[in-house]
Write a structure and sequence with these properties.
The protein is mainly alpha-helical. It contains 6 helices and 2 strands; from the N terminus they run αααββααα. Strands 1-2 form a two-stranded antiparallel ribbon. The longest helix is centred in the last third of the chain and has 17 residues. The model has no long low-confidence stretch (mean pLDDT about 95).
């Protein structure tokens, strides 16, 4: 599966959908994007981003009677892995240790945290 790069706005829409517990309808996505990310987007704006996400094969538009829902085709984990892989390659020159050090920063890790990392 080829995972295309998303714009920041497309990421907000996808994150809103990934966080839904069901296949959302347009109004669900509008409510989540505006509520969680402080946007004031109209349904037409969100619909435009949804159409782009369908074209990029992130979503499938499904008709259930008179209701249209959006089915996720690219799981959040797959997208995040792609982002991390790109970041490690581009910014850290494929040095995973440097990447992990950046992510951890000055945070104190517990013994349990260190065990999970192994």
């Amino acid at each position: 599966m080829k995972i295309e790069k998303l714009t920041e706005s497309e990421e907000l829409v996808m994150k809103s959908i990934w966080d839904c517990k069901k296949e959302p309808v347009l109004s669900d996505v509008v409510d989540r994007v505006n509520g969680f990310y402080g946007k004031d987007w109209k349904p037409q704006t969100v619909s435009t981003f949804l159409s782009k996400l369908v074209r990029k094969d992130y979503l499938k538009l499904c008709r259930n009677g008179k209701i249209y829902t959006y089915k996720i085709l690219v799981p959040e984990e797959a997208y995040r892995r792609k982002l991390y892989k790109h970041h490690i390659s581009f910014w850290n020159h494929n040095d995973i240790v440097e990447f992990v050090q950046e992510m951890i920063g000055n945070q104190d890790l517990t013994k349990e945290d260190l065990e999970k990392l192994q």
